[in-house]
Amino acid sequence: MELKLKEANLSAKFIHLINILLLGLFSFSCIYPFYFIFINSLSSPASVTNGVYLFPEEFTLKAYENLRSVPGIGSSIIISIGRAVIGSLFTTFCSSFCAYILTRRHMVAPKFFYRFFIVTMYINAGFISYYLLISALNLRNNFLVYILPYGVSAYYIILIKTFIESMPTAIWESAEIDGASIPTIYVRIIVPLAKPILACIVIFAAVFQWNAWSDDLFFMLGSKARYLHCLQFLLYKNLQTNMAAMTKGAAATGGGGGMAVTPQTLKMAMTFVTVIPILCVYPFMQRYFTKGIMLGAVKG
Q1: % of the chain exceeding 70 in pLDDT
Q2: Which of 3, 42, 49, 173 could be stapled to 56 by a disulfide with Cβ–Cβ 3.0 to 4.6 Å?
Q3: CA 102 to CA 118: how far, in whole Å?
Q4: Are 143 and 79 contacting, i.e. CB atoms less than 8 angstroms apart?
Q5: For the chain, where are the E strands, in sequence order?
Q6: 3-class state of residue 22 by DSSP
């Protein structure tokens, strides 16, 4: 009996060790790309050309100094933070309220409207009609073009609606008997109980808003919009503007060894700068993430 227990303990320890090794390798594969970008952004162009894998070589901050000197970088950071915060909260509110309305039994044709939202995930009218709509609404060269078009997402509605349907309906039915209105039930009952899935939606929407730049490219034109460009678009535009000059300089100096900044090191610095905010915010929301996405994706 004791021999069997020892064998069972050894097997359990072996499996535990294998799990640690596998999870360690998986964690390393997730973390190392960010570390690789960071050390290359702090290395000289010549070192980056030869390969930097463990520690920065010939430490330099020239790439970040180049980014700091980009005209309008301060206002673009404020715009990106503003659209990420306001846009994610607006999207979460609109999508969650819409999902709550679709769960109410006495709503007119809830299945029809639910399927209507789902159809929009697969069918759209194309970019030309979208551009004409934005122009007709006077949203060109307007900060609201970053916010209003993304107010409702069919995917978010599916997740939130499924989560709300898993909650006991007796909670808000009793509130209705007491005379609570739809907004009151939403604010005082639905929002507090649906925090996990709402936190997930905030993360999804914030990441999307922070990384988005195509709407800036198409709808922010002319001198009126120079203070409304987001960080990602400004860095992209700066990289495209300087790419040819840097490439010529790199060729003249034999691969960039004599240059302070090359397209490669500048890309590394740009990537790291744009990733930092998400890396800072995500750990605080992570505790809601797994619970919310699982409960929001599986009914019952």
Answers
A1: 85
A2: 42
A3: 13
A4: yes
A5: none
A6: helix
Tokens of 14: 């072996």
Question: Does pLDDT of 295 surpass 60?
Answer: no
Model pLDDT for residues 111-126, shown as the tens digit of each residue: 888 889 999 888 888 8
Helices (H) and strands (E) in the chain, counts: 14, 0
The values of phi and psi at residue 83, to 5°, are -70, -30
Instruction: For 71-297, give the CATH class.
Output: mainly alpha
Strand blocks (E) in 17-120: none
Least confident among 109-118, 202-211, 242-251: 242-251
Domain boundaries in the chain? Answer: 71-297
Helix, strand, coil % over all residues of the chain, rounded to 5? 75, 0, 25
User: Among the residues of 104-230, which ranges form H helices?
Assistant: 110-119, 127-136, 154-165, 170-177, 182-185, 191-193, 195-211, 214-219
Please name the amino acid found at residue 248.
K
| DSSP three-state, residue 177 | helix
The enclosing H or E element of 243 equals helix 231-252
Task: Give the helix/strand (H/E) hosting 288.
Answer: helix 263-297
Residue 148 corresponds to which amino acid?
L
Residue 164 has which token pair? 């709300």
Buried b / exposed e along 178-203 (16+ C-beta atoms within 10 A)? eebeeeebbeebbbebbebbbbbbbb
Two structure tokens written together for 43:
């290395």
- Cα three-residue angle 93-96-100, rounded to 5 degrees: 135
Condensed to tens digits (0 to 9), the pLDDT of residues 136-190 reads 999 999 999 999 999 999 999 998 998 888 888 788 778 888 888 888 889 888 8
pTM: 0.81
